[in-house]
Amino acid sequence: MVILKTITIKQPWATLIALGEKRFETRSWQTKYRGPLAIHAGKSVDKEACEDSWIKGVMTEHGITSYKDLPTGVVLATTELLDCYKVEATLGYVSILSKGKAVDGLEVAFGDYTEGRYAWELGNLQVLTESVAAKGRLSLWEWKNE
User: Fold this and answer.
1) d(CA 92, CA 26)
2) pLDDT 10s digits, 51-65
3) Tally of CA atoms within 13 A in the half-sphere of 84 that contains its CB
4) What's the pLDDT tens digit per position in 76-127?
5) Cβ–Cβ < 8 Å for 103, 97
6) Residue 140: beta bridge partners?
7) What residues does 145 pair with on adjacent strands?
8) Are the C-beta atoms of 88 and 97 separated by less than 8 Å?
């Protein structure tokens, strides 16, 4: 049995991470945790966000044409939480983060980079060959993959 720290993320953002299109997850809270992290797609879908032209365009490029095609209540992928940065400023589609880091373009369009929030940098994405049903939770939680 493998136990992994896991984060539940609302759709379509969980899928954008699993597609490799979103490399930062934005949160209102920071974490000191670094290491392996499972990406769990929550049961809810932000249908309005799915109609955003940037999100819809990227998902269509990957063959996803409707929010109904998004998996929910499953672990989709594993990644590594590399670092956590505080958002210092956002000007248009450029966000200045702590530690001299900056993100731009679609990455900013795919997150909430309001000043004072946190951007969690993800890397080493591994998409599961089959998603695994799991009940999500708030904050970081432990998923037991049996």
Assistant:
1) 17
2) 999 999 999 999 999
3) 14
4) 999 999 999 999 999 988 999 999 999 999 999 999 999 999 999 999 999 9
5) yes
6) 7
7) 2
8) yes
